[in-house]
Design goal:
By secondary structure, the protein is α/β, with parallel strands linked by helices. The chain is built from 13 helices and 16 strands. Helix 2 runs parallel beside helix 11, helix 3 runs parallel beside helix 4 and helix 5 crosses helix 6. It starts with 22 loop residues before the first helix and ends in a 5-residue tail after the last strand. Belongs to the leucine-binding protein family.
Length: 407
């Protein structure tokens, strides 16, 4: 299959007699950063801003002189929301293009489709998306929120806001949704509550009429919905249209991560509770400055979302590791990052946890209001304690497991 998309950012600096140099010498003058993400298809609302954020970070680094005196070239492939293409392009990037690092993947299935290729080819890999936790692999760094950073604070807060202990859960029917639903059940129990039912939905399901009727019969105090993708967005519209939104409060671990709250009308979205590390509406100097840089590069910053920001952090975190190591060689960069590298940006500080290769981050409890995320409370520097419970790369550097954490 032909490559759908391949772009290169950054050019080798002009030099006297460059055209006469051997190709191998010219290649050594640039650092190759691979990107595999869905910039078309049903997940493009997530993937396009991730691609833009990655390129912005690279342009910032190149504009400041590059890394180790070398420019970064981006070698990007659009996986078109097709899981099969992740494996194909992972092979292309690592075996033919021979990149120095790869950033990519959105769904957990896409991460697992390429993670072993990265490990076997000894290509450093950054997964910059919130997920279900438990990946323990020294070759990967995970910047996204895990359930202990997000759901553990969202669930009891939402239950308190709802004023009741009975919860109904709707979840996407794949790894993330299934495991997150189990975490939600644990956190509901920890808060003294009960999950009345958990329903799972394939990603292409868009009719929730029968489910809404079931929820009405069950009469919970709160609905929590880790649903994913454009089809699942239909639930929130149908929920509001049924008149239930103002009767039973909603919370979600996923809604808004791809700016879905901007697609919902205020009548459909107002009051829904979420918890993320980033919102466009964070009123901080760092976020204001970042949005100005984004606007200078792309215009309107309305495309910005959680996954884009995590990707931006991923690139800059990797770059700091390269600078500290004085090399792009995988083991040297990993060792540098394992010193606990931090990067300060629009969402505050992200710090590498050496034990798990996940990030310690700030988390904001928020409610949707008029297509914005209003911050209710900020919880500073939450570590990935769920993954820490099962993963210790300092003690077991050869581990290569995604643990199903016992809940």
């Amino acid at each position: 299959m032909t490559i759908n998309r391949r772009n290169f950012l950054g050019a080798t600096a002009a030099m006297t007699g460059a055209a006469m140099l051997p190709r191998a010498v010219l290649a050594a003058d640039t650092i190759k950063l691979g990107s595999i993400v869905d910039t078309s298809g049903i997940f493009d609302a997530y993937g396009k801003p991730m691609d833009m954020a990655l390129r912005l970070a690279v342009n910032e680094i190149n504009g400041a002189g590059g890394l180790l005196g070398r420019k970064i070239d981006v070698m990007a492939y659009d996986t078109q929301s097709d899981m099969a293409l992740y494996s194909q392009y992972a092979q292309q990037l690592t075996r033919q293009d021979k990149v120095d690092v790869v950033h990519g993947g959105i769904l957990s299935a896409s991460r697992e489709a390429i993670r072993q290729t990265m490990r076997k080819t000894k290509t450093l890999y950054f997964y910059n998306v919130q997920y279900e936790g438990g990946v323990c692999d020294r070759n990967i760094f995970c910047n996204g929120l895990t359930p202990a950073q997000q759901a553990e604070v969202l669930v009891p807060w939402a239950m308190k806001e709802a004023g009741g202990k009975k919860v109904y859960t709707l979840a996407a029917d794949y790894n993330y949704g299934q495991i997150t639903a189990r975490w939600i059940e644990k956190y509901v129990r920890d808060a003294g509550g009960e999950v009345l039912s958990t329903d799972f939905f394939p990603l292409d399901v868009a009719d929730f009429g029968a489910t809404i009727a079931k929820i009405q019969t069950a009469a919970p105090d709160l609905v929590i919905a880790p649903l994913v993708g454009g089809a699942h967005l239909s639930f929130f519209r149908q929920w509001a249209a049924s008149g239930m939104k103002d009767k039973i409060p909603l919370a979600s671990t996923t809604l808004g991560v791809g700016n879905e709250h901007k697609v919902l009308t205020p009548e459909e979205g107002n009051g829904i509770m979420v918890a993320y590390s980033y919102s466009q509406d964070l009123d901080t100097p760092a976020n204001t400055a970042f949005k100005e840089r984004w606007s200078a590069a792309y215009g309107d910053p309305s495309a910005l979302h959680e996954l884009a920001i995590s990707t931006y952090y991923g690139v800059h975190t990797w770059a700091k590791g390269v600078e500290m190591a004085g090399s792009v060689e995988r083991d040297a960069v990993i060792a540098a990052l394992e010193t606990g590298v931090s990067y300060d940006g629009p969402a505050g500080k992200y710090t590498v946890d050496p034990k798990t290769h996940h990030a310690t981050v700030d988390v904001h409890l928020m409610k949707f209001k008029d297509q914005k995320m209003d911050v209710v409370e900020t919880l500073s520097q939450r570590p990935p304690i769920d993954t820490q419970a099962v993963c210790d790369l300092e003690a077991n550097p050869d581990d290569n497991t995604q643990y199903e954490i016992q809940i």
